[in-house]
């Protein structure tokens, strides 16, 4: 069954057996808290069956759902990799079965197995900040911003689950590297199925969200 998990699909039988021997399998009830925002990261999880919600509480005390996780999705890796507190809370949306690896097992097994935690929408509750920090804008990009633009970007970035575990200093660096692009009507800045490597903040205009050729939302 581990082979059916996307992030583990390329591992061989021997590697999967090592993972199986070191994981703990347990069930949770609907609405049961799996871990809380701000707590130390001590385990990594994969949902074998069921689903969960990712909840983030802002500095103002407002809590909202920022992502949903389903069977095959994983969460908890970011706090382990970055040694940072949990960037969000994860709560079971229904009765679910989870596979869990402790911090010690995670550190020994996953780097050795060369597991790549690719980001594809809602498959992870947290994110590793290293990739964002390595990004460099094109040489011709204009990164200067007005205070109003910087404030608007900050409001979006700080509410994005990808950046919730980052420090204010790192977030400011991310904002500083962002630059303006003009996208013509009819042009898609991102395509379904592509690897996500850019974050966009809409300053002006609007976009349609299309999934499998059908418009499912707007921005």
TrEMBL record:
Residues 7-110, 162-219 form the Cyclic nucleotide-binding domain. Signal peptide: none annotated. GO terms for cellular component: cAMP-dependent protein kinase complex; cytosol. This is Cyclic nucleotide-binding domain-containing protein. It comes from the Eukaryota. Pfam families: cNMP_binding (PF00027). It comes from Lotharella oceanica. InterPro entries: cAMP-dep_PK_reg_su-like, cNMP-bd_dom, cNMP-bd_dom_sf, RmlC-like_jellyroll. Gene3D superfamilies: Jelly Rolls. PROSITE patterns: CNMP_BINDING_3.
């Amino acid at each position: 069954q581990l082979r059916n998990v996307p992030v583990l699909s390329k591992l061989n039988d021997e590697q999967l057996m090592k993972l199986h021997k070191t994981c703990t399998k347990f069930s949770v009830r609907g609405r049961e808290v799996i871990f809380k925002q701000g707590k130390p990261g001590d385990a990594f999880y994969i949902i074998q069956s069921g689903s969960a919600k990712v909840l983030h509480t802002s500095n103002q005390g407002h809590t909202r759902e920022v992502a949903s996780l389903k069977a095959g999705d994983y969460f908890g890796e970011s706090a382990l990799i970055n040694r940072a507190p949990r960037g969000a809370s994860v709560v079971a949306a229904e009765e679910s079965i989870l596979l869990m690896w402790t911090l010690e097992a995670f550190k020994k097994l996953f780097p050795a197995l060369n597991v790549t935690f690719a980001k594809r929408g809602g498959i992870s509750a947290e994110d590793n900040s290293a990739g964002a920090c390595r990004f460099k804008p094109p040489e011709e990009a204009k990164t200067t911003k007005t205070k109003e633009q910087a404030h608007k970007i900050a409001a979006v970035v700080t509410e994005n689950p990808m950046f919730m575990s980052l420090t204010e200093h790192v977030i400011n660096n991310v904002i500083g590297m962002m630059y303006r692009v003009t996208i013509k009507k009819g042009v898609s800045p991102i395509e379904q199925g592509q690897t996500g490597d850019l974050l966009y903040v809409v300053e002006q205009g609007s976009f349609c969200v299309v999934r499998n050729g059908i418009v499912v939302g707007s921005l």
